[in-house]
Amino acid sequence: MSIDPILNKALNGERLTTEDAVKLYESDEVEKIGAAANEITKKWHPEPETTFVIGRNVNYTNLCDTYCRFCAFYRKPGSSEGYVLDDEQIMEKIQETQDVDGTEILMQGGTNPDLPFSYYTNLLKKIKERFPNITMHSFSPSEIFKMSEVSGLSIEEVLKELREAGLDSVPGGGAEILTEKTRQKVSRLKSSWEEWIECMKTVKKVGMHGTATMVIGLTETYEERALHLQRIRDAQDETNCFLAFISWTFQPGNNGMKGEIISSEGYLKNVAISRLFLDNIPNFQSSWVTMGPVTGKKSLDFGCNDFGSTMMEENVVSAAGTTHKVNTNEILRLIRETGRTPVQRDTKYNILRRFDGEATAEKDFVMQN
Questions:
Q1: What is the pLDDT of residue 45?
Q2: In this structure, what CATH number is given to the domain that contains residue 44?
């Protein structure tokens, strides 16, 4: 069956159905799907530019009682290999980020049952006192649910207090695949798909935005992928809670889980289908961290308008044996090789600087692990 009628629907501004999405997943015409997604991206972002943010992941603890099967990063509470960074270590990491003109800290960790809620609010206050211009894009729904559990506060109360303490936006980690079938298989103790969605809606209710994510290769079906996209789109229709969408692939190293190894082509197809289906989310980030810089560059022709974060430090994906490193000037080069102008943004996609011509970053870094 030809996929042309489905692609034409999307190009004409009509909404795709989950049945349409499944047919696209079943198709091997990846280049054609990518070309349609690229046209949709141009409607959202007509200028030949690609944005990126200078930021750092700070994984403040690896102690976690959720025990996701695909995660090689976590350690059980009480483990001799577990850690909680002290405040000064975190401050040093943020200072290093600010020193290279970084603007975003993606602070995430395990669901550590031994950290009181006051740990998070006190830490945020200290960070904002010392670094008022740094954006704290931090704490996924899983961590927020753990904060609710240890404090006895509702999700809304937790998010309000976090915002008052200095939280600016919430990353969409922990979505994986938003169906109970897959979640029960790979992350049984994690919040349900309904809870994840409700948390992200509440993020917007208390005055912040978040991002939506998707992990493929967890042995989910095409129907489950389509349902995941439908649930993201429905939540966005209702609350406009997502500024961006990011998908990445299951990483098989060091975790003992037998998932599906997704090829570069499979990742690019997923990006393109997502762009066609999610007609209400403006920004799509490339996942060069899992797929590598070459595929990251290709994704800019398959629906992505953003190269994501420079990610000065990353520990979760690298724990699974995948380590791709790029610095700011390499990002500039990769974007330029596609014929686009690199543009530095902040977390809310406000433009900070356009790197016209051969301009490079005056301050640069080497990604650390």
A1: 98
A2: 3.20.20.70
